[in-house]
Automatic annotation (TrEMBL):
It comes from the Eukaryota. The keyword DNA damage does not apply. GO terms for cellular component: proton-transporting V-type ATPase complex; vacuolar membrane. It comes from Amborella trichopoda. NCBIfam families: V_ATPase_subD (TIGR00309). This is V-type proton ATPase subunit D. One of its GO terms (molecular function) is proton-transporting ATPase activity, rotational mechanism.
Length: 261
């Protein structure tokens, strides 16, 4: 894209130059701020990515332990443990709530688990395999905690990814489109103002030359008029013709010049 197509279509005046310079300063500051925001989001994005990788690695082991504990509980307490557990459950003891974290102006959703109310005494499996049932419950609660944490990280990861893409698009637009266009506009206005200044200077020189020639013409005309008045005066005083009076004045002028020299 040529420089002509990258500049704004403006009238080259001093006022416009000041406005475009102010816009360039604002664009430069905005570019710097957006660049810092992009860097901060990228750092947070990498941290979340590391946490996601470590959480997924630990999740496999935790899910394996919870499944194995469920198998142990079924083996000890029998297959009817599912109905006993469902009969004893009234409300969920582990719940999830959402919050928001602010990272460089981007709101990231964050999920956290909590226990609703006091944990009640659970007598499920007290007759057969109570210890295995409690171990199975603890293993699944730990699995739920990991799943909630992973969901929070995944949601923040996607939100940050979209925010980074949007911020980088704005940074690239300011760096490659807006700032070069404003800089080219400033160069164009300065060039036009310099050209106008040169034209004004040339115009002033022409006017001064015209005035000088007009003054010289007026001086010559005044001198000629004075000579005519002197010739007429001499002709009237001596009663001779204008040519004779003119010759007399010319001879007198030559003698004056000889005396001077």
């Amino acid at each position: 894209m040529s420089g002509q197509s990258q500049r704004l279509n403006v009238v080259p005046t001093v006022t416009t130059l000041g406005v475009v310079k102010a816009r360039l300063v604002g664009a430069t500051r905005g570019h710097a701020l957006l660049k810092k925001k992009s860097d901060a989001l990228t750092v947070q994005f990498r941290q979340i990515l590391k946490k996601i990788v470590s959480t997924k690695e630990s999740m496999g082991e935790i899910m394996k332990e919870s499944s194995f504990s469920l198998t142990q509980a079924k083996y000890v307490a029998g297959d009817n443990i599912k109905h006993v557990v469902l009969e004893n459950v009234r409300n969920a003891s582990v719940k999830v709530r959402s919050k928001q974290d602010n990272v460089a102006g981007v709101k990231l959703p964050r999920f956290e688990h909590f226990t609703d109310g006091e944990p009640k005494a659970d007598l499920t499996g007290l007759a057969r395999g109570g210890q295995q049932v409690q171990a199975c419950r603890a293993a699944h609660i730990k699995a739920i905690e990991v799943l909630v944490e992973l969901a929070s990280l995944q949601t923040s990861f996607l939100t940050l990814d979209e925010a980074i893409k949007t911020t980088n698009r704005r940074v690239n637009a300011l760096e490659n489109v807006v700032k070069p266009r404003l800089e080219n506009t400033i160069s164009y206005i300065k060039g036009e103002l310099d050209e106008l200044e040169r034209e004004d200077f040339f115009r002033l020189k022409k006017i001064q030359g015209y005035k000088k020639r007009e003054i010289e013409r007026q001086m010559v005309a005044g001198k000629a008029f004075a000579e005519e008045q002197a010739v007429e005066k001499v002709a009237l005083m001596k009663g001779i013709s204008f040519n004779s009076a003119h010759n007399i004045l010319a001879v007198g002028a030559e003698k004056d010049e000889d005396i001077i020299f």
